[in-house]
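hiii so um. not sure if this is the right channel but i have a protein structure encoded as C-alpha cells and i wanna go backwards to a sequence. like what aa goes where. can anyone help
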C-alpha cells in the first residue's frame, strides 16, 4: 500500500522555509537555513524509531531509562544539493552513517545521470533517509532509489524541503513502499521542470555557483 506523504507543519520550519524561498536570501544564509530546517526535519523523521529500556546509574540513584534500539540509520544525500542537509541531520543523529549518490539532471533531456555512488557496507540492514532539497520530476530520486535497491537496501525514506505533486506521484507509483517527507507540496512544475513557486536552483543557491 502507498505510504501517505508526511508534511512537516511545524511553525519554526515553515518560517525558515519562507526565508529559503526568498530570492534575496544569499548563499551563506541559505546554507544556514537549509541546515537548520534539516535538523528540525530529522526530529520528525525519527519520531517512530523504536526505543529499549536500559538500566543506568545517575549521580543520585539507579534507574531505568530509554535509548534507541533497532535498525541503524544511513543518510544518503543526493549530490550536490542534498549535501546541504547532512550536517543538520547529523547534529540530531550523530551515530548515523552517510552514503552518497552523485546525480545531476540533464538540462535538456531531464534524465538523471549518475556519476557516483558509495554506501555503508551494511546498507541492506539500515533505515535509509535519502535527502535532497527538491523533488521536482522525481527523475533524480527514482534513479537514486533504484541504485539503493540494487544494493539490497530495503527500508527507504525520502526527505525533501519541497516537492511537486508530479514528483510525489511518480515516486509513489515507482516505489509505493518509500515514505516521503516534505516541508511543502508546491503547486507544480514550470516549463523548465523547476518547482513553482519553489526556491530556484538548490545546488547553485547553496554553493554560489550562479
Ligand atoms: C536538483 C535537485 C534534485 C533534482 C530534482 O539537482 O537537487 O536532485 O534537481 O529534480 P528532478 O526531481 O526533476 O530530478 P540538480 O540536477 O540541479 O543537480 P545539483 O544538485 O548538482 O545542482
Ligand atoms: N532542481 C532545482 O534545483 N530546482 C528545481 O526547482 C527543480 C530541480
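sure thing!! here u go:
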Amino acid at each position: 500500500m502507498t505510504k501517505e506523504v508526511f508534511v512537516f507543519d511545524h511553525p519554526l520550519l515553515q518560517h525558515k522555509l519562507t526565508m529559503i524561498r526568498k530570492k534575496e536570501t544569499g548563499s551563506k544564509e541559505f546554507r544556514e537555513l537549509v541546515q537548520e530546517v534539516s535538523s528540525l526535519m530529522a526530529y520528525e523523521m525519527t519520531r517512530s524509531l523504536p526505543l529499549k529500556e536500559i538500566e543506568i546509574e545517575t549521580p543520585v540513584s539507579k534507574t531505568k531509562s530509554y535509548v534507541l534500539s533497532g535498525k541503524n540509520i544511513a543518510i544518503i544525500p543526493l549530490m550536490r544539493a542534498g549535501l546541504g542537509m547532512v550536517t543538520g541531520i547529523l547534529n540530531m543523529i550523530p551515530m548515523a552513517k552517510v552514503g552518497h549518490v552523485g546525480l545531476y539532471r540533464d538540462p535538456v533531456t531531464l534524465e538523471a545521470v549518475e556519476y557516483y555512488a558509495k554506501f555503508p557496507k551494511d546498507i541492506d540492514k539500515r533505515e535509509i533517509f535519502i535527502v535532497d532539497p527538491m523533488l521536482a520530476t522525481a527523475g533524480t530520486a527514482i534513479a537514486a532509489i533504484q541504485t539503493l535497491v540494487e544494493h539490497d537496501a530495503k527500508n527507504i525514506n525520502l526527505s525533501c524541503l519541497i516537492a511537486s505533486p508530479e514528483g510525489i506521484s511518480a515516486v509513489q507509483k515507482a516505489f509505493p513502499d518509500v515514505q516521503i517527507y516534505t516541508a511543502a507540496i508546491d503547486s507544480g512544475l514550470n516549463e523548465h521542470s523547476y518547482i513553482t513557486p519553489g526556491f530556484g536552483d538548490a545546488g547553485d543557491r547553496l554553493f554560489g555557483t550562479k
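oh and Residues 134, 136, 194-195, 198, 201-203 surround uracil (ligand 2) (CB under 6 Å).
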